[in-house]
Specification:
The protein has one domain: Alpha-Beta Plaits. β2 and β3 form a beta hairpin. It is built from two helices and four strands. With 93 residues, it is an alpha+beta fold. Helices cover 38% and strands 40% of the residues.
Length: 93
Amino acid sequence: MHVAALTVELEITDGRTLKDKRQVVRSLLDRIRGRFNVSAAEVGRNDSVRYAELAAVAVSNDRTHLDQVMSKVANLIEGEPRVAVVTRELEFL
């Protein structure tokens, strides 16, 4: 069994209020969960208006498959025009 955890710190470029931030974060999390069948949540920087930390986690018996899925998740996040990726880390447990 393999577990992959992707953690991404984002700068919300359109974020002026927490409501703006929540809209962007919720949209990203819904798309990640819906397209890739992974668990995803905001895990840090909750009170910051301009920054968010998201995590996506998946379990599989094939590490290569996990690497591909997490790469697609990262590409979806990086393709979002309302955010800029500050840091990105992928761990296999």
